[in-house]
Amino acid sequence: MSFLFGSRSSKTFRPKKNIPEGSHQYELLKHAEATLGSGNLRQAVMLPEGEDLNEWIAVNTVDFFNQINMLYGTITEFCTETSCSVMSAGPRYEYHWADGTNIKKPIKCSAPKYIDYLMTWVQDQLDDETLFPSKIGVPFPKNFMSVAKTILKRLFRVYAHIYHQHFDSVMQLQEEAHLNTSFKHFIFFVQEFNLIDRRELSPLQDLIEKLGSKDR
Q1: Residue 107 DSSP class
Q2: Residue 126 falls within a domain, yes or no?
Q3: Could you tell me which residues are beta bridge partners of residue 88?
Q4: Is 116:142 a contact under the CB 8 Å cutoff?
Q5: How many CB atoms lie within 10 A of CB 163?
Q6: Residue 204 pLDDT more than 70?
Q7: Is residue 110 part of a domain?
Q8: pLDDT digits (tens, 9 = 90+) for 103-133
Q9: Which of 73, 45, 70, 69 is nearest to 59 (CA)?
Q10: Between these two residues, 192 and 32, which has the higher pLDDT value?
């Protein structure tokens, strides 16, 4: 679940989001880590018996944010205004940023700017107790699932950008195994609960099929 990046492991793009120790969500995270350790990712992403789906999605969303935060943190020096003047995932896919509140009309911006907007926005959602309640007995809001889907859809774009534009750097840093394991876990999770539209996954469709076929 938590991947170590050698001497660079302390370098995250944004501060890590911690789940309070001793909480039920913390226990769920530990359960997820234990099942991940078994090596069967298809099984590891399944909803544990008797658990709340919203809570399971919340815990995993926080964990994916932390993983992507760390992965992108290791390659920020290669992702610059000059090298990545637009936020793209290969020549056919370009993303423009809008969050619906501060920036209502999508704006074209560089990849580092886009990812900064994106990760800041995700962090704000995760820190909002009305959206992601951390206290036992506090219900999830009715719109939780749609918010979680938007978060995961946007986090996918960071994976897509890293794979398309920075995979050479990832290989130089010998972190492709970490990236692949993290992405495979992410994809199996969103597939299990149908959280991202297939069209949104198009930029990495070949890789997704390859990762899935290895598991059949």
Answers
A1: B
A2: yes
A3: 94
A4: no
A5: 19
A6: yes
A7: yes
A8: 899 999 999 999 999 999 999 999 999 999 9
A9: 45
A10: 192
Helix (H) / strand (E) element for 87: namely strand 87-88
Q: Is 79 annotated as a binding residue?
A: yes
State phi, psi for 68 to the nearest 5 degrees.
Answer: -65, -40
At position 101, the amino acid (one-letter code) is T
Q: In the numeric block, which tokens belong to residue 105? A: 């009309």
Say which residue the tokens 């423009």 belong to: 96
Whether 182 contacts 68, CB under 8 Å: yes
Say which DSSP state 39 is in: T
Q: Is residue 109 a known part of a binding site?
A: no
In a domain? residue 3 = no
31 is in an annotated binding site: no
Q: How many CA atoms lie within 13 A of 47 on its CB side?
A: 15
Q: Please compute the mean of the pLDDT values over residues 180-200 and round it to a whole number.
A: 95
Please give the angle made by the CA atoms of 193, 31 and 136, to the nearest 5 degrees. Answer: 80
Residue 150 belongs to domain spanning: 24-213
CA 164 from chain centre, in angstroms, equals: 16
Q: What pLDDT band is residue 207 in, cutting at 50, 70 and 90?
A: very high
178 is in an annotated binding site: no
Q: Where residue 185 sits, what CATH number does that domain have?
A: 1.20.140.30
Angle of helix 53-75 relative to helix 144-172, nearest 10 degrees? 30
